[in-house]
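Section handout, structural biology tutorial.
Before the tutorial, make sure you can parse a SMILES string by hand: atoms, branches in parentheses, ring closures as digits. In the record below the ligand is 2-acetamido-2-deoxy-beta-D-glucopyranose, and the chain has 469 residues. In the tutorial you will relate the predicted structure tokens back to the input. Do not try to memorize them.
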Amino acid sequence: MSSPSYHTSILCKYYLIISLVATFFMLFFFNLTYISSQYVDSSIFTMKCEEAGPKETTANLSHLMFVLVGSSRAWKHRRTYIESWWRPNATRGNIFLDVEPSEEFRPWSPTFPPFKVNEDLRKLRIYPKLANRVHIRIYRSILETYRLKQDDGVRWYVTGDDDSVFFVDNMVDVLSKYDHTEKHYIGMFSETIKSNFHFSFDMAFGGGGYALSYPLVEALVEELDNCIERYHYIWAVDHLQSLCLADLGVDLSLEKGFHQMDLYGDISGFLSSQPTAPLVSLHHFETVTPLFPGMDRPGSVNHIMKAANVDQSRMLQQSICHVRASNWTFSVSWGYSVHIYEKIFPRSYLKLPIETFRPWWHGGPPPFYMFNTRPVSRDPCEAPHWFFFVSIEQEKEGVVTSYKRKFPRNMTSCSFSGNTSADPLTTIRVFSSKTPKPGRKVECCDVEYEGANVAYMRLRDCRRHEIIA
Ligand SMILES: *[C@@H]1O[C@H](CO)[C@@H](O)[C@H](O)[C@H]1NC(C)=O
Ligand SMILES: *[C@@H]1O[C@H](CO)[C@@H](O)[C@H](O)[C@H]1NC(C)=O
Ligand SMILES: *[C@@H]1O[C@H](CO)[C@@H](O)[C@H](O)[C@H]1NC(C)=O
Ligand SMILES: *[C@@H]1O[C@H](CO)[C@@H](O)[C@H](O)[C@H]1NC(C)=O
Ligand SMILES: *[C@@H]1O[C@H](CO)[C@@H](O)[C@H](O)[C@H]1NC(C)=O
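Predicted structure of the complex:
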């Protein structure tokens, strides 16, 4: 840390000296108006230099202002999603609703974010022409948050829906890579090609959430109502947002950990092969089957949070290792699932999600997704044994997550690679270290299996030049 700030201060000194010399030079040779403008320029420069000094602290949760949007009618069944990740007295922000919440939520629980009721839109001149009034109400929550003047020390605004689930430690980790004193718009497009095609490939989808650095928020709020007038015919709020930001000269920076989840059905294949990046958000729980077999939707969200509350850095991160003696491959998606294949597969193949899900837009020929997939297979050499996350324990040296088989595979063994069936296995226990996983680094693993019904996986750093195949 010390060396860049040292260089900054040396540079600052040089610039200061040069600008002082220049000012004196101007004093002698040019007229007064020009001198005064030069003088102002150099003092602005000095102030900027001081800001770039070493005082800057690392990002933490208190620097994030959450702008959450929902409706009072939906609160009853959506509250659990927000409650699963909201940390009272640590996370900052509000949930914006259309009308006052009903009596049954009075008094408002301290486990919820404080609620605000959105301003009446009818005061806007453009009101009769708005293509989507609900979305414009939602959009103005950014402006209304700013007007609350609760932004002391805030570096980022993070927007989300009432059915977005955030992994806030990872969010802090991802945002800390960016300079919050510059203008940044950070999020991810949809998983479904057609969604991006119909809206935009250059927008952050709102349910997956997105982040705006504070200087960008300041620029946006001044312009927000004008922008609504300019684009009153736009239907989707997140699309509108991308247009407003584009006109402010800011384009989207993609972060793979945000998930709009424009998918239908069983997303277990998707969650078992995630990109190597901190998991930041999940969304659309009501259009997918519950994340875990045998659980309801809210229950499954709370269940996945049990792992996330211990170690967010490894959430859904995939590690792959092989048992050469039996020609098996193990693949864990930490905190969610383990797959065992009765064959040796390379990582290059297993990092593709198994297409257990369906695309958001029905009909038409493929391609559907912004990523490559593997088909669901009934071939015993290709189909994995599935195990799902059941529990997490913290031990002295590390963390142990356990995964159990929820249904039999109903297949013969893979004859091609030696007929060694993994059917006897019921439980996989995965050991990981207490230190967080570095953001974009893949972890390797080893398997211990002595023929009983339990196998152990131990996550570790990959060796130099290790081949995962
Ligand atoms: C977060 O950083 C601020 C400085 O910006 C500091 O005052 C505060 O104590 C930190 N909070 C935590 C929880 O570390
Ligand atoms: C939050 O802080 C307030 C005041 O410090 C305290 O009364 C309350 O119990 C805290 N709430 C939680 C959920 O920790
Ligand atoms: C295997 O068979 C059982 C009982 O018929 C069934 O419940 C289960 O879903 C089947 N498993 C798979 C992976 O098809
Ligand atoms: C696996 O078992 C099948 C049927 O018993 C047999 O035909 C095949 O040769 C076996 N494969 C290996 C690699 O042993
Ligand atoms: C592993 O699979 C290969 C084929 O890929 C086969 O030749 C070999 O015999 C198998 N090893 C065992 C121990 O079954």
